Amino acid sequence: MSAKVVAVVCSDLHLSHKAPVARSDEPDWYNAMARPLRQMSSVCNKYSVPLYIAGDIFDRWNAPPELINFAIHKFSDFHSGVYSIPGQHDLPNHSMDEIDRSAYGTLALIQSVHDVSGAAGDLQHGHHNRDWYLYGYEWNRDVDVMEQRTDKRKFAPRVALIHSYIWTKGTGYVGVDDASGIVGWKDRLRGYDVAIFGDNHKGFDASYADTDTRIVNCGTVMRRKADEIEYQPHYGIMSIDDEGEITVEMNPFDTSKDVISDSHVVKKAEAVSRDASAFLGELQAMGQDSLDFREAVSRYVTVNDVDKEVVELILGSIEDGC
Questions:
Q1: Strand pairing class (214-217; 194-198)
Q2: Nearest to 237 by CA among 32, 51, 38
Q3: What is the pLDDT of residues 79-93, one digit of tens each?
């Protein structure tokens, strides 16, 4: 039985103008970000298929012009196009109502990416002589319930692109709720042939699970934190066979040139950044909305007497103008 490659899938690029603290020793951060994009564009162009991104192209919604131009340039290398939905990091205040203010909105406006959020598109790729339906479910949007179909040969396959947390054994955080696990998603995904997830940075292929829908969580494209140093990022190659069955083969990115650190200073800097983010949220809840993350870090480290080396590492990783 033959199968045709129809798309490459990924999620959570988290493009950023400056390297995160764990990647601060990269000699050229923009080149480091380009490496996985070049790998995926090579595969997409080999098969003449598009790239599907399940959210969080950017690490921050208000990316600077240099980073936006970088994304435009790199996505132009995908000759069959890039289709995406926004994740919460792409949206001001995590709100779709404000998408026009965002860097993601700029990419969508000029069609550097084809935004399929909230859309049920009939995407026909002539190279494969086959139609299938792509349904986009951006951050904080419920997945539509579909009628389950028994004979897949009579219908065009349904693909759901979803930015929402999903986990299975070994990929969830402490205290994660059961509703966002594989079992909790099972009934909500009935009627879809495959569901491509983003948000959880620990990727997995749940083809082993007792579900009617093929579930793939893409995971992060790039390792950005000290606790990800042992993690192997993957992208997926999606294929459809003559019976209408969809498979997604997970392939590792080449990370041999990555420079990533899990030193004590890096780990402490990441912990302080997390605490400072919570501190900023508390201040804004009290009405101090004009504060930004840099100012929140400065206040937090002063109050908590944080080591100078840690402070310099955090402030050095904060994007200019953000």
A1: parallel
A2: 51
A3: 999 999 999 999 998
Match 């790039």 to its residue by tokens. 222
CA 121 – CA 318 distance, rounded (Å):
38
Q: Are residues 150 and 15 in the same domain?
A: yes
Q: For residues 283 and 64, what is the distance between their CA atoms, to the nearest angstrom? A: 25
Same domain, 184 and 229: yes
Phi/psi-derived region of residue 21, left when phi > 0, alpha when psi is between -120 and 50, beta in every other case:
alpha
Which one, of 107, 43, 26, lies nearest residue 252 by Cα? Answer: 43
Residues 199 and 294 in one domain: no
Among 182, 89, 192, 201, CA closest to 139: 89
In a domain, 93, yes or no: yes
Residues spanned by the domain of 298: 264-317
The count of structural domains within the chain is: 2
Q: What single-letter amino acid sits at 274?
A: R
Query: Is residue 97 a contact partner of residue 45, using CB atoms and an 8 Å limit?
Result: no
pLDDT in tens, 147-157: 876 665 667 78
